[in-house]
Amino acid sequence: MTSGDMEIVEIDDELDALSSLRMELTQLSTQASHSIYKVPKLLRDVNSKAYEPQIITIGPYHHGKDEYKPMEEVKLRYMQSLLARKPDVGLERYLSIIAGLEKKVRDCYAETIRFNVADFIKMLVLDGCFIIGLIGESTIHNDRTFPGLKWDLVLLENQIPFFVLCELFDLIQGPDQHTLLMRRVLDYFEYVFPGNVLYKPEKRSEEVKHILDLIHSNWCPSPHNISTATQASSITSFLIPTAAQLKDANVKFERKEYDRDSETFRESRGTTVFDVEFNQDNGVMSMPALVITDGTESLLRNLIAYEQFFPTHEPAPVTDYALLLDCLVNSSKDVQILSQHGIIQNFVSSDQAVADIVNRLTLKISHYVDNMMYVDIFNRINTHHKNRWNRAMAVYHRDYFSSPWAYVSFVAALVLLLLTAAQVVFAALQQFK
């Protein structure tokens, strides 16, 4: 090979490398539009069932699997019902609207979608119309007919873009009714989430990525409501003692009641499960109740998995809350203490089962403390726990006032001591007279 031939080969190699790199950079630039992800393997390995649908698939990631085929007929029935209710809007209109969005929808998925165009459009129309029909029905009827369905609809891998729902809702309900759509979705999931799901009118439909994102943004505190007064760099420890250890340090637990007042419920105010407080003056830690059911782990794990894809500067409130729970709960004893105060409401098999659920939540996650919302609480709790006087008072209380009879004995002894002292004083006064 001559030197000229070698130069031509080198130039060809450079052009190939340039073309390949440009293609990869182009693909990278489209990742900004991704909003529907596959759960990372590290998280899936902890509990794979928490991320997989039980009865129904929404979107392409699990579509076509044999175990979910019975619900495909149900989707067809919902589509048939919608067509009957809106005879002026033919099936071809639904398909045409979604066909115009097909490329945009594909870009929302982080994984390559291998469905052909026709099958992909058909799936989106059936899934979207099923959800719209579902949220317009009686929740009690749905829960009885499709037990466990709600948990499937909040899985990270079981989503379709929210703008698809908006476009279909325009055909079914009328144009520009997206606020109504968001409210219906929140109403449908009202009792799935612990505490209030608060409708935040500042969230526009164009900003909503999918149902899980809508729930996350309305259930979690707004970024501007998360305290950043204490910087993460000044945190004394990324851990706090368990509930049992805090009890031994004279910390008292109280359940914080949810604000269900009609004027605040579903507005941008009200109590949520994240509203944890610690009063260092009296040692009282107040927390809203967390109901633990068979679906709680899946719900929290999918929200945490979703937060794993947030930019590092954005708050991750569910991850923060899970870390707080994991610190407080290390054994069935800790669950028992929190349950006695109504903070944990256990609807699973045992206290140990709850402890196992909580301890799995933070396994294999990436956690950034720059915007952690409990930094100040962690610092105050650790300061309180290190105070020897608090621990001494707790031991004294445990050893001498562990039962109501101990209090009665103490009061009786105190009264007897006071009477004896009074008698001595009285006798002394009589002598001096």
Oligomer category: single chain
Shape: elongated
Distance between the termini: 133 Å
Order of helices and strands: HHHHHHHHHHHHEEEEHHHEHHHH
Number of helices: 19
Radius of gyration from the CA trace? 29 Å
Helix content: 40-55%
The strands making up the biggest β-sheet line up spatially as 1-3-2
State the low-pLDDT regions, or none: 228-233, 261-269, 389-401
The residue-averaged pLDDT reads 83
Count of extended strands: 5
Q: Major beta sheet, specifics?
A: 3 strands, mixed
Share of residues in strands: under 5%
Helix/sheet category: mainly alpha
Lay out the secondary structure:
Elements: H1 3-29, H2 41-46, H3 69-85, H4 91-99, H5 102-108, H6 117-135, H7 139-145, H8 149-153, H9 162-173, H10 178-188, H11 211-219, H12 243-247, E1 252-256, E2 277-279, E3 284-288, E4 290-292, H13 296-307, H14 317-328, H15 332-340, E5 344-346, H16 351-361, H17 375-386, H18 388-400, H19 404-432
Parallel strand pairs: 1-3, 4-5
Antiparallel strand pairs: 2-3
